[in-house]
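Quick one:
INPUT:
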């Protein structure tokens, strides 16, 4: 290898596609050294469960300017599968050297290099893979329907069955039930059953952290489920060790369950020690996407990887106003309840000041959105974390308030629906994921897209804005960081490529800066930044709806009369506009099938 070579490693499975872009910085006697230029996550890409057109769309979001590519996907078997994947990749990276295979291969490479040993992978699914010389042995990994015992999906399904079994036997809800309902923002068992019937593998596996929380809290029956998962994985490990004649194998643990939950690691170690007392158990230090890059580069065992963030980049991130400490709250933990409340109330003056300072930009935003909607376009909010939830919230309130189609105003949040009620780690860090989300929603040149990021730097949001701009949509960046630039790194409008590969800057139509200063709780942008963002979206969306004629005076004239409260409101609207009594107004609505707009139009 030569210094400056760029290597792309990709590992894809049933829940996500993880990738890393590396550059060779030195090739010496101690082995090559690499700098991680970029990395991220994209939607799932199990080779057997995904259509080729969909897989192509996902892979197309990856960096293009590379010399070597390693693509290792779950379900990609030897022979025809790998040849098919290689042909697809050759269309995307025609000048690169391409290596394809199964995600077991990249896991082995990340954990063992060229060495012998056993890799136990427990994430949303599970598998055990061992190697001795040229011989490979496998156990588990048959997918979440037939196997994957010991993975997150398996553990959660067992826990959900426990909940229903306990209810059927004792007609009472187990304490664990409340934890699951809380995590999903559901109200009762019937809602939980309906959710489970439509939830996919990832939605269910995401609840594994709740299972481990209950076990750590002393729930004996949930702990039995954890122990059962560890037992099965140990049996698989012992079987692989026996087949390979490994008496004291190196056993490397990979996957989110082992990295996140020490209780699972301890349960596995304890059980394995009984039958394989000389096994050397360790946790993997490298993620499988680096193993994919390692295989693509055909490297030896002595390889050094350096973080993608330089000190200068880290300093720049820390310089954002949203990450600075607020001098007025440095003794927060010593305040009385009264003092804390007074401080919070006093701090809200910065929200008012920020909104006043942005009147011209908020006006312009409302006008742009109105024009887009009037011309048949739609409005999209894009955000991650609190910003994404606020965007989804405002979008969800438009149909019942103004009688609009749910398609008219839409919210995109990094991590999808799961991120509305639970943190989905790492989903905001990939521009390519934001760009792909824009493509999947079919955003076009008649639409308007508002990217919401308190820091002004969230990659998912910037990638979405860049792609939307390249498609001709109107783009607005809403931020609370005064240093955020109106120039957003992304694809050129003339080139439909990946945001990570962009060589040009894309200028959004304009930036709305809502400068509320440092948060009372450092970095917690759900506070003032969240408040000012919600108010700003209220202004923009309500202003557009008013301009589109969905309001008479200050009364809702297109609301859906879908509940007793809303029917009562509709009656009062008609009574006000018709200058009649309550009963007469109600009779008019009943005669028109409770269609408020129809009645209002007749009163005009």
């Amino acid at each position: 290898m030569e210094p400056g070579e760029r290597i792309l490693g990709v590992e894809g499975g049933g829940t996500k596609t993880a990738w890393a872009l590396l550059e060779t910085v030195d090739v010496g006697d101690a082995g090559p050294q690499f700098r991680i230029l970029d990395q991220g996550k994209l939607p799932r890409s199990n080779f057997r469960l995904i259509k080729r057109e969909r897989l192509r769309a996902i892979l197309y979001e990856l960096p293009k300017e590379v010399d070597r590519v390693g693509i290792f996907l779950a379900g990609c078997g030897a022979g025809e599968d790998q040849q098919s994947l290689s042909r697809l990749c050759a269309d995307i990276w025609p000048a690169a050297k391409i290596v394809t295979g199964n995600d077991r291969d990249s896991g082995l490479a990340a954990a063992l290099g060229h060495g012998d040993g056993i890799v136990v992978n427990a994430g949303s699914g599970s598998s055990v893979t061992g190697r001795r010389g040229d011989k490979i042995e496998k156990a588990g990994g048959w997918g979440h329907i037939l196997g994957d015992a010991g993975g997150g999906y398996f553990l959660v399904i067992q826990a959900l069955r426990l909940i229903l079994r306990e209810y059927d036997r004792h007609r009472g809800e187990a304490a664990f039930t409340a934890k699951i309902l809380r995590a999903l923002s559901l109200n009762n068992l019937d809602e939980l059953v309906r959710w489970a019937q439509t939830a996919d593998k990832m939605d269910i596996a995401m609840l594994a952290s709740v299972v481990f929380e209950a076990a750590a809290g002393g729930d004996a029956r949930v702990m039995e489920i954890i122990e059962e998962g560890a037992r099965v994985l140990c049996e698989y490990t012992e079987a692989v060790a026996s087949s390979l004649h490994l008496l004291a194998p190196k056993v490397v643990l990979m996957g989110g369950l082992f990295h996140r939950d020490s209780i699972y690691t301890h349960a596995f170690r304890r059980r394995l020690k009984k039958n394989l007392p000389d096994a050397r158990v360790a946790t993997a230090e490298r993620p499988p996407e680096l193993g994919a890059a390692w295989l693509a580069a055909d490297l030896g065992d002595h390889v050094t990887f350096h973080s993608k963030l330089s000190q200068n980049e880290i300093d720049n991130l820390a310089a954002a106003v949203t990450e600075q400490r607020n001098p007025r709250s440095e003794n927060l933990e010593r305040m009385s309840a009264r003092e804390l409340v007074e401080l919070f109330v006093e701090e809200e003056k910065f929200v008012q000041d920020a909104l006043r300072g942005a009147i011209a930009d908020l006006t312009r935003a409302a006008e742009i959105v109105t024009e887009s909607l009037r011309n048949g376009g739609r409005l999209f909010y894009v955000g991650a974390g609190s910003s994404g939830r606020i965007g989804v919230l405002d979008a969800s309130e438009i149909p019942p308030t103004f009688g609009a189609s749910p398609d008219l105003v839409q919210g995109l949040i990094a991590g999808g629906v799961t991120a509305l009620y639970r943190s989905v780690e790492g989903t905001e860090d990939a521009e390519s994921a934001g760009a792909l989300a824009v493509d999947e929603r079919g955003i076009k040149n008649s639409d308007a897209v508002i990217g919401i990021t308190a820091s002004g730097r969230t990659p998912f949001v910037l990638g979405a804005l860049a792609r939307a701009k390249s498609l001709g949509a109107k783009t607005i960046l809403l931020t609370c960081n005064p240093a955020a630039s109106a120039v957003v790194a992304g694809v050129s409008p003339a080139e439909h490529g990946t945001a990570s590969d962009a060589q040009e800057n894309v200028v959004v139509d304009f930036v709305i800066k809502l400068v509320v200063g440092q948060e009372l709780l450092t970095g917690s942008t759900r506070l003032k930044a969240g408040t000012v963002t919600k108010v700003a979206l209220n202004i923009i969306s309500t202003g557009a709806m008013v301009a589109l004629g969905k309001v008479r005076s200050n009364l809702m004239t297109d609301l859906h009369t879908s509940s007793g409260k809303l029917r009562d409101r509709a009656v009062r609207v008609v009574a006000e506009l018709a200058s009649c009594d309550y009963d007469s107004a109600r009779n008019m609505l009943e005669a028109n099938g409770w269609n408020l707009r129809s009645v209002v139009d007749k009163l005009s």
